[in-house]
Fold these 2 entries.
Entry 1:
Amino acid sequence: MSLPAPNRILLVEDDLPLARGMVENLRAEGYEIELVQDGLTGLARARNADHDLLILDVMLPRMSGLELCATLRGEGKKTPVLFLTARGEPDDRVRGLEAGGDDYLTKPFHLEEFLLRIKAILRRWEWYRSSVATAAGPVLKFGGNEVDFRSFNAKSWDGSTHDLTEKEAMILKVLAERPGEVIAREDLIERVWGMDVYPSTRTVDNFILRLRKVFEREQQTPRHFITVRGVGYRFLPEGSEP
Amino acid sequence: MVTRVFPGSGRLLRPTIIALLVISVVQVCWWMWDQANYARQNMERVHALYVDDAVAARRLAATGMSTEAIHVLFPHIEADGDGNLIIAPEAVTALEDGRQKHITQYIWESGFFLCVLAACIAILWRGLHEEREVRRQQDNFLAHVSHQFKTPLASLRLSVETLVKRQPPPEYAQQLAQRMLDDLSRLEGMVTKILDSARLNRGRVIFHNTRIELAAAVDNVVSRVMDMAQKHNVTLQAEVPAGLAIHADPLAVENVLRNLLENAIAATARTGGKVVVSAKSDRDGIDVLVKDNGTGFTAEDGRRLFEKFQRIETGDQVSSTGTGLGLFIVRRIMHFEHGRVSASSAGPGRGATFTVTWPQAIGDAVGDEGASA
């Protein structure tokens, strides 16, 4: 591997034969991997150690994968999460992603797909981190708002502070890289989640609504996050004419 | 086996039945009103005829016909105290009674009709409801079962793909092959349990009950699950005294014991636990006790323990990989074997004891010589 340091992955899976197979394959790909078999231990490990990715089975003893992820997100932990589950209904996928997951893989999965998904998540995360590091300033200022992409902290025009989620920050980053341009919902999904993850583009709309809630003076007449009907969104740092 | 009903039939059922009832009640009310009207008009018509008869009788009397002869011609005409010919009060009363009787008869008949209709609708409703319930259970069953198959399938696929992708050294390839065999065993075990539970659920089982030496039967099953126990660091002990014999089907006994032991091992897996099988004889038969120091369960969980797909999530139990059918199978077998099964636990984390009671083999002395854990 050409990476300076291997990516560290925490796998939480209670079925030992399956977990062993995953661990061996991930090691062969050059990842550094830690395996735990129940939700509570997984939570403790995710809290105390620094991982680049968490792979969580949804059905775990002691604490479900969804609960584990939601708890970590509630504590401000941004580590990306890949869910594994035997249930593949659209509702389950949405629930997983709303708990703060980045991707969702249904059992039984293909080894190649499993490895590709992991690479894709790590690559997106890497993009975010490197673009924040190389940007002229990791701080975005617009319309009296201030966003620090490194710490995910945001200060809005009314002086209140907010802790952005990883996805909110990524969406904002994608929009802010091309100010004034129309960005399709599909492009946003591709950049932030990966195209095959979300069942509908409406989820993006929900994230935009949350961003408006934090950054717009009047949510009904947004001046920075403009909807382009049928296409996507346009970000205007200066604000549109009222 | 699955009955297909077009979508939406369930939703339409309730309003349709209510509409049917309302229409029937309205129809019956209309009949009642119509019949009351008819009876009244009928009475008025007859009364008008009586009045005409009275006039005719008076004319005949004027011609000199005797009152008796007139009464024979017109039985409902009689002479009052003053000798005037009038309609007999009994005849008027009889007309009124006839009308009442007619209405009463229709009230009873309509009531009966409505009762029969309501009963038919109730039976129909119940039938449809039961069918819907069965369909729901089948759907749940399918969803649950396919879900249970996916983890061993995922493991199996991963092993095969690893073999193909990595071209591993012989030693690792051997390990992968062993893992595949284990996954296949898991899948086979699941298929067996699903088939068992389906057969038991439909009652399509034949038991050949015979005399079984309990100690030997327990040893046999213990040796079969010993691998699983060792894999999970569980100590497994059989303390069944020799000489106890039950009257049961050998395959059923093996199935029950294996399910109970597997269940106990899974429940103690993470705590390096201990599972003890013991037996004792009492008045009702022979009790076999499977006692573990594992996760235990709450009283509430205990009530639904023997239902299908009930898996108890307490403490550090390894539970997402079972079929959720084992204890259901045990309960059904014991039902057909005229035996009993019960479970007790002091609470979560404090172990559990499962007791199955079989009839004692005939010709055995009943005593309390059995050991207990």
Entry 2:
Amino acid sequence: MSRFAMVIDTHRCVGCQDCVVACKTENNVPEGYTRDWIAEEVHGEFPTLHLELRSERCNHCSNPPCVACCPTGASHVHPLGGVVLVSHDLCIGCKACLAACPYDARFIHPDGYADKCTFCIHRVERGLDPACVSVCPAHCMHFGDLDDPRSEVSRLLASRNHHALLPEAGTNPNIFYLT
Amino acid sequence: MTELTYTRHNPLIDPIFHVWEWQIPVYLFLGGLVGGLMIIAGIRLLVLRPNRREALVCCTLGPLIGLAALSLGMFSLFLDLGHKLHVWRLYTTFQVTSPMSWGSWILLLVYPALAANALAHLPEAIPALASRFPALVKISDFILARPRLVLFAGLTNTALGAALGIYTGILLSTLGGRPLWNSAVLGPLFLFSGLSTAAALLHGILVLTMPSGERPAFADFLLSALARMTQARPLDPAAAPILASADNSFLTVEVSLLGLFLLGHVTSTAVHHRAAGLLLTGPYAAPFWVLVVGLGIAMPLLLQTLELAHRIRHTLAPSLLVMFGGFALRVILVSAGQASRWFEALN
């Protein structure tokens, strides 16, 4: 078994949005929509402010609420790496998965079906990194198998402080941010 | 201080999540109404004396209206789908963890159950229809001659009505991404709201058909036209107090469940506390307290209590208010639920 994850170094990310452009180009994401985006979180009190830039997308949760609520089985977990995918032919566009996702990572494609990040499964199956990871000029994004202790993502998580988004939601997200 | 800014601007998602519009509240309202009509008609069928005219409004008109309302509700749900031509995919699988999958199969079973309930007494309720379609008489005779079949139809209607009513709430409560909906109380709340709207609808029909001196003047024309067309047997206004009394009970349970729903959120996590704030002090507070609690529950409770105490005449007002309140409850909960979110700030 494998469990794909993405580790993003927030100290290196400059919010350039190359990952966003690469995803749109690679996956032919329609104009006005996006599968990944940049979040800019500022906290603290002036002058001791802290800024964190994050490249965000579907968290490919190990406990995905979008899969549990899907009435047709269109939302499913791919056997390769536990990637959460949507079968466009099975999707009826009921939007239950959109409402179930606490990260608001999904949207309705103009053709009517639910759409989201696929971890570029078509590239990963050929041994390539997802498009966003492969173009990052700051080299802040890493992709790999969490179940392999020798993988880059496992080593980074073992050696650096990190956090995931909304762990309290109980979805067990597989995107981690190094801090 | 925490400030969160996104570069994402996906339609229907940003800046405020609003993927469901009027179609879903309409479907949830009509689904709850049909669930309530099925329970009332099912119970009435189980304890029915066939010669009692009051049975007609519950066991014939109720399911007939239910069939129409359910079809309208399903059409509304269909209109909401993004991938409409793929709707048949719902019936090629059964997803045990998906309330929507449960609901789609329940809806399929509801039609024959409602039809059986309506057909049992249809010929005596609407003789004109029976004389035009003699098969209806045969079906009615077939059902009524078999007490076990009547018992089965009654039980099935009651069970499926409860399942349908609860499902409309569970559908929302399992969608974990919207904190306001994360409450098991939502299922029973929608069930009792559906029961109250169903009782109010039947009560309203009885008020319309009361003796000419007691009913609203505008109903005269409507009734005489309908009576000419259908040769329908007049309804028994004696059932009006029973339905008004039942409606008061349902409304009392509903307001208690609403209290529990809000209490559960306020005493839960900060995320859920903030979500409840949308209804308690936030942008949805005024419509919620005025339209749902005030006009939809408190006012009809008061009016029906006065009716039952013979202090005022039975009027259409409480029926209309309860149905309006039931619809407003769904509109506000669907809208406010979508506005509630796990992240504190957006854009």
